[in-house]
Design brief:
Helix content is 30%, strand content 30%. The strands form two sheets. Strands 1, 2, 3, 4, 5 and 6 form a six-stranded mixed sheet that branches. Strands 8-9-7-10 form a four-stranded antiparallel sheet, covered by helices on one side. It is α+β, with helices and mostly antiparallel strands. It is built from nine helices and ten strands.
């Protein structure tokens, strides 16, 4: 079985408090995008994982293997073709885990509720079970699907070499934001969306702020860091405008994508 594992961006990301269990409460709008990894599953005598990116661990620290074990599926050999950069705020590892849960459930006819298994693997893994556009609270697992853009929105992803680990980004936060609620969030314009991680991360890595400004100067109607970074995303009015903007980023890796 061969499946795609799609990346995500956050249109908005507000950190609303710290929980007694050590996690943080947040309020965000997730958006699945067309950039994706590909996983291939084959029945085998033992569970194993290979990856075409040598920087990605293929031992039990990888969420793909942890997802397969959590599901209790028969052994498979798994091949991961990696296109979503690790540590970029695009949810690649979480997406891989969710795709593994769904694929192996289908492959072996396993009837288990996947949401709790997904949450045990990571706070944003449940989103990747549903995809599309979703308003999320709690750790990110309380999901309300909302209408996706009527036509796919052209996106340009700026992928700096700098990486931001999520735990480090949370440690850098200086304040929390009051939650807005679903209806107020729906009513926001693009330019009113915020990411609470931007202020501390941009202070430590000012080149990321410069990339955001360059996206806006290149014609993006909205630009923001996604997740805890370091990917900077711009949305454009048309694919033509997006493709023209790519020429302004010859000094950094960029990827064209769209909302999914």
């Amino acid at each position: 079985m061969r499946v795609a594992a799609y990346a995500k961006i956050n249109w908005s990301l507000r950190i609303t408090g710290r929980r007694e269990d050590g996690f943080h409460d947040l309020e965000t709008v997730f958006q699945a995008i067309t950039l994706h990894d590909t996983l291939t599953f084959r029945e085998a005598e033992r569970l194993s994982l290979t990856c075409d990116d040598p920087t990605i661990p293929t031992d039990d620290t990888n969420l793909v293997l942890r997802a397969a074990r959590a599901l209790g599926a028969p052994p498979v050999s798994i091949s991961l073709e990696k296109r979503i950069p690790a540590g970029g705020g695009l949810g690649g590892g979480s997406s891989n885990a969710a795709a593994t849960l769904v694929a192996l459930s289908s492959m072996f006819g396993i009837q288990k509720p996947l949401h709790d298994l997904a949450l045990g693997l990571g706070s944003d893994v449940p989103f990747f079970l549903v995809g599309g556009t979703a308003y999320a609270t709690g750790r990110g697992e309380i999901l309300t699907p909302i209408s996706s853009p009527s036509t796919p929105l052209p996106l340009l992803l700026v992928l700096p070499e700098e990486r931001v680990m999520t735990a480090e980004a949370f440690r850098m936060l200086r304040r929390f934001s009051p939650p807005l609620g679903l209806e107020r969030m729906r009513a926001l314009r693009f330019e009113d969306y915020t990411n609470d991680f931007e202020e501390p991360v941009f202070e430590r890595l000012p080149r990321l702020r410069a990339f955001k400004m360059r996206l806006l100067e290149a014609g993006a109607t909205w630009a923001s860091m996604t997740g805890s970074g370091s990917t900077i995303v711009g949305a454009f009015a048309s694919g033509t405008a997006r493709d023209a903007a790519m020429a302004a980023f010859s000094d950094v890796r960029v990827v064209a994508a769209s909302s999914a």
